[in-house]
Amino acid sequence: MEGSSKKKVAVLVGPTSVGKTAVALELAQAIAAEIVNADSLQVYRELDIGTAKPTPAERVLVPHHLVDVVDPPEPYDASRYSHDAREIIAGLHGRGVPPMVVGGTGLYLKALLSGLFIEGTPDTKIRQRLRRELTDHGLAALHERLRRLDPASAWRLHPHDTYRVLRALEVIEATGEPLSAWHESHQFQDAPYQTLKLGLIRPREELNRRIEDRVEAMLAQGWLEEVRGLLERYPPDLKPLQALGYRHLIAFLQGRWSWEEAIELLKRDTRRYAKRQLTWFRGDPEVRWYAPDQVPEMLVALKDFFGE
User: Fold this and answer.
1) What pLDDT does 43 receive?
2) 124-129: long-range contacts (C-beta < 8 A, 24 or more apart)?
3) Which one is the CATH code of 7-116+188-306: 3.40.50.2000, 3.40.50.300, 3.30.1370.100, 3.40.50.720?
4) Third-level CATH fold of 124-186
């Protein structure tokens, strides 16, 4: 079998608030694995409460990698993540430690496990013109244009993701082909590992309740104070500060939304994000789905996979 000569990597995925952290800790302890983070915000220092990072106590129980590795102003993307994660996984394999990649950022996981399609070098003139259009007409108008030209990419990208919306439009103008078509033709063929992919899922109503409870818990832990402190050191348009939750609390602090509006929209957008995550992961036929309380069944699969 072709995949048998490849090094083994276990993966645990699922939508936000499904309970990945607790399950990952239990599984990793049981098989003496170490955890490689695959959450695009947990790589940033100082973004702690709103990213639901594993606590210091949890990191003592199981070593975690790629958590708190860059400061908020430092660029970090799927390509860099793939390079860093592959380096860490090689080190774990060298020490005979099972790697368990855990997170919900689909693009980071795809870059790590299947290679990252690079759609060419940026076209400066097109990018500058799109930036002017962004200033003149707003991001909503550009996202609507993307929806007409490349519906698949528009559906996948959040309407507030300025960088990726502009990049997708740039690719269309520079190449005459939608970004989704480039990704499909590439088919992410760089697959360096033999993988076992475990997915966590809950009934929609239960997941939505957990999302609501989690937002309230984060606020009780001081999330607003965390954001206020970040704004004292960094500009509000910094990429990680435009992420889910952070941008909502910033809008409140800037007086653009009332507290009730900010929290209602935060919860709504988190539910929508969870739905997009599930759609992404359900598109991967290799994912084996479990309820979070099916830890014994997942352990059987892991031990069989790693040959214990």
Assistant:
1) 98
2) 126/170, 126/173, 126/174, 127/166, 127/170
3) 3.40.50.300
4) Histone, subunit A (1.10.20)
